[in-house]
Amino acid sequence: MHKYLAKSNPEETIQEHTDNLLKNYQRLKKLYPAVEIDWYLLELVCLLHDLGKMNLLFQKKVGNDFGKGKGKEIPHGYLSVAFVPDSKLEQMGYSDDEIKVVYQAIARHHERKYDFSDSDWKKEIIRLEEQWTNFNYSRLGENAEYSSEIEMLYFYPGSRIFEGNSTADAETFKKYVLLKGLLNRIDFAASGGIDVELENDFLMDSMEVQLANFKAENPEADWNSLQKYMMQHQNDNIVVIAETGMGKTEAGLLWLGNNKGFFTLPLRAAINAIYERITKNIVTTNQAERVGLLHSETYSQYLLHEGNAEMDIDEYYTRTRQMSLPITICTLDQLFDFVFRYAGFEHKLATLSYSKVIIDEIQMYSSDLLAYLILGLSYIDKFGGKFCIMTATLPGIVTDLLLENGVNFVQPKEKFVSSRVRHSMEMVHTEIESEFIKPFFNNNRILVICNTISKAKKIYSELKEHFQGEEIHLIHSQFIKKDRSAKEDAIFKDGQKDSTKKCIWVATQVVEASLDIDFDLLFTELSDVNGLFQRMGRCYRNRALDVDTNVYVFDGGAKVCSGVGTFIDKLIFENSKTILNEHAGILTEEKKMELVERGYSTEALRGSEFYNDLIETINYVKAFDSYELDKADVRTRFRNINSVSVIPEKVWQDNAEEINSYFAKLRKTSKEISTKEKMIARTNLAEFMVSVPDYLYKKGEGVVREINRYESVIEFKCGYSDEIGIFMHEKQDDLFF
Questions:
Q1: Does residue 533 or residue 307 have the better pLDDT?
Q2: Are 360 and 265 in contact (CB under 8 A)?
Q3: How far is CA 437 from CA 190, 283, 432, 551, in A?
Q4: CA of 602: how far to CAs of 23, 325, 395, 644, 683, in Å?
Q5: Maximum distance among all Cα pairs of the chain, rounded to whole angstroms
Q6: 75 CB-side CA count, 13 A
């Protein structure tokens, strides 16, 4: 008997690899028996998926030269279909469509380009017969039968299973997505040497400990009305509106219970903060097997936490990427890009079919991300998963669109809101100006928020010049990562309500969410009613109003505020201006919720660019055929990437030695340096980078510095200082965010 290999480094036979799949299959079945999958068919595709690797060309590639393989190598999944026991499946009563699903799941368990002829495929299948006689695997039993001819009714290389318009087509598509997606998950886990799923048998106990800790400080402590509601509705899709500071994180976890869950938030900084909170205060042991963090900088975040936990960072990273952890905190793009149904999307939707998804801060999403979210939730609902939307303010259009897309959910009659009043607002009918702000700086902490970077820089330089020697600072998105992080730490420190330091921070919308800060006075340009209430949350965050006015909103007067018409929707701005001018003065939390619902109702938004983009995006995504796009294309579309990561020329000059040392490490081969060391070098290199919008990048000059065949970094010719960030040499352009 020949020893047929599935992979060469480290060496593993097809039988050994399949044994590992079957272990993970059993694990998945034990932990999630209620998944809507035919367990026999899932076991069958696990057994058969790699048998096509017996072909001589593949064996030669992995170092087994049994004889001359001829012609072009056919992807092994397309050859494994020769072993599907279709006559047995027919006898067992499976329908033609169900048997098709088995063939497709096996053939396409790796998405490979179909670039071979049907005649070459048929020849290779015939050649497999000889290998089959030399292959012995006791676990196959009667579950495999070789056939040199595949019935076209069941499979041919160009065939696909599409979503279709009929109920029967949709049902077949669902079966295919679940079968292929779970095969992928099991296969990835077996190849990565990890468990396909780790059990959530700890969360409710952790929550009880958390409550006991609250009671130790205050014997009267108990879960509040929001948290109790969430616990009582663990089996429902729910949409709840709850004021900031009501314990939404705990509420979300109580709804999740001892189930597999994903916690999604709009911004990386917010995700890092929630991860920190959960791993420090709630799930305090074995975190590397329980709670993961998934965004574009996961590895660098794990490096920061490496010292705090018993963890093998590479294994933890693999578990996180493979979605094996019980709880994953992530950005929308890591999860919801499956709505494009790109080639290879199935494992995400299959996982979500037995998971619960918590969507926090829905009011922060742009029109395109909101469209993906609505579509994603409709799939999750159809496939058997559960979701919960928790938000401080709920745009009315969201519930309308969920209902329109056939999504089932419950909504409590009451809003979870305290009677405490935190804000009193004065509308100022001019553009934002430093002259107005100056008299208010008196032994206090002031936050100024502008819509654009250029406006923030202007206000900052005027205040800095006027209050020489005082603590005046600037934060926006165009500082290199290292400086931005230092500024975030500094504003966080200055923004604690017990801080006695007097200071002014001038910022852009980078502080709207994620930063848990509490200033004494807020001066802000109007963007829209929703953004304004986010900004208000950075002032008197957790304290009752004890002054006449603590928020001043500049509405532009006869003009519009900066950024309006470029990235702030003009109609929404005008509507917001009207609504807010009717409600100046004291604003209760309930009133804020009401105004957002009104300002963002379907009626109020109709005709706005936001509304048109939202509806167009939903229709645009629905119009794609499944598998039409590849993953890289979807990633660009989904993240709406219209910026370039660069290292400013000045930063490069000042840090050339350090930057070159990282280049040197990244040029080494995997024999010379570990993956972890390379990841650390990449993380450190990223500290010198900043994201520059396309329009600005085109005005400057970028020089591509090659690191190796796969990686390069752009040196951007521009001015830079850690005080004001990037600036163009000729003239200062209007920069957003």
A1: 533
A2: yes
A3: 61, 44, 9, 11
A4: 50, 38, 9, 35, 43
A5: 90
A6: 16
Q: Enter the tokens of residue 48.
A: 């058969």
- Which of 569, 432, 510 lies closest to 737 in space, CA to CA? 510
CB-based contacts of 115: which residues, under 8 Å, 6+ apart? Answer: none
Least Cα distance to 392 among 422, 372, 369 occurs for: 422
Q: Which of 225-234, 636-645, 707-716 has the lowest mean pLDDT?
A: 636-645
Calpha distance 679→600 (Å, rounded)? 43
- Work out the angle between the directed axes of helices 298-305 and 313-321 (0-180°, nearest 10): 140
Instruction: Please tell me the distance from the alpha carbon of residue 445 to that of residue 494, in angstroms, as a whole number.
Output: 8
Mean pLDDT score of the chain: 93
Quick one: tokens of 591? Answer: 């009133």
| Residues in CB range of 692: below 8 A, 6 or more apart | 478, 643, 644, 645, 646, 700, 716, 726
**Residues with Cβ < 8 Å from 4, sequence gap 6 or more?**
13, 14, 15, 53, 54, 59, 64, 131, 135
Domain-ending residue, one of 404, 430, 450: 404
Q: Are 207 and 285 in contact (CB under 8 A)?
A: no
Q: What is the mean predicted confidence (pLDDT) over 404-431? A: 94
Quick check: is 410 in a domain?
no
Buried b / exposed e over 102-140, threshold 16 CB at 10 Å, is bbbbbbbbebeebebeeeebbebbebbeebeeebeeeeb
Which helix H or strand E contains 118, and what residues bound it? Answer: helix 118-133
Residue 720 host element (H or E): strand 719-721
Q: State residue 729's pLDDT score.
A: 74
Q: Which two tokens stand for residue 685?
A: 């290199």
- State the residue range of the domain holding 146: 5-192
Q: Which pLDDT value is given to residue 482?
A: 96
All residues at 6 or more sequence positions from 317 whose CB lies less than 8 Å from its CB, including other chains? 298, 299, 302
pLDDT greater than 50 at residue 734? no
Predicted pLDDT at 308: 61
Angle CA 59–62–66, to nearest 5:
35
Q: Which of 337-341, 415-419, 518-522 has the lowest mean pLDDT?
A: 415-419
Per residue in 241-294, pLDDT (tens digit) is 998 888 999 999 999 999 999 999 988 888 998 999 999 999 999 999 999 999
Residue 66 falls within a domain, yes or no?
Answer: yes
* In a shared domain, residues 314 and 458: no
Residues 364 and 494 in one domain: no
The residue to which tokens 């709207």 are assigned: 512
Quote the CA–CA distance of 552 and 288 in Å, as a whole number. Answer: 45
pLDDT at 309: 56
Nearest to 398 by CA among 589, 390, 380, 535: 390
The letter for the amino acid at 737 is F
Identify whether 10 is preceded by a cis peptide bond (ω within 30 of 0).
yes
Same domain flag for 433 and 284 = no
Domain assignment of residue 617, yes or no: no
Q: What are the pLDDT digits (tens) for 440-475?
A: 999 999 999 999 999 999 999 999 999 999 999 999
**546 within domain boundaries:** yes
